[in-house]
Amino acid sequence: MPRPSHFEIPIDDADRAEKFYGDVFGWTFNRFEGAPAYYGLAATGKEDVGIDGALYQRGDRTQTVLTMNVESIEDAIKKVEAAGGKVTQQKDSIPGVGWIATAVDTEGNEFGLFSNDENAPPPSR
């Protein structure tokens, strides 16, 4: 059964946001240098308890996003569309990590889909 595996929180000021979440919750951050804009991976605690996430530079996306781990991005996309949702970002790769897509549910909430695949190639752009 797919479970939440990652969250993303939109921010305007990386230093300020990292300090806030670090001070309040003790989270630590590792800035992902390969991203086109600021993307700070957040470690939220013990590896086998809860989920980790990220802070990302606010732009067109302005919601906190919860990502679900799925077996197959293709199958999950089909299920989203069959249930009345809308895919807003088609399948794309994170090299050496896996596959991602973004969708919106029937209530207008954005969420992510992720499938592990260490053999994922660079995106074809």
Structure write-up:
The mean pLDDT is 92. The chain has an eight-stranded mixed β-sheet, covered by helices on one side. By secondary structure, the protein is α+β, with helices and mostly antiparallel strands. The chain has helices spanning 14-25, 73-82, and strands at 3-11, 28-31, 39-43, 52-57, 65-69, 86-94, 98-104, 110-116. A hairpin with a 3-residue loop joins strand 6 and strand 7.
Task: List its traits.
8 strands; single chain; eight-stranded mixed beta sheet; alpha+beta; 125 residues
Strand content: 35-45%
Provide the spatial order of strands within the biggest beta sheet.
2-3-4-1-5-8-7-6
C-alpha end-to-end distance: 32 Å
| Total E-strand runs | 8
Q: What's the rounded overall pLDDT mean?
A: 92
Shape, principal axes of CA atoms: globular
Helix content: 10-25%
Largest sheet: 8 strands, mixed
In short:
The chain is of the alpha+beta class and 125 residues long. The protein is built from 2 helices and 8 strands.
Task: List the SSEs and their pairings.
Layout: E1 3-11, H1 14-25, E2 28-31, E3 39-43, E4 52-57, E5 65-69, H2 73-82, E6 86-94, E7 98-104, E8 110-116
Parallel strand pairs: 1-4, 5-8
Antiparallel strand pairs: 1-5, 2-3, 3-4, 6-7, 7-8
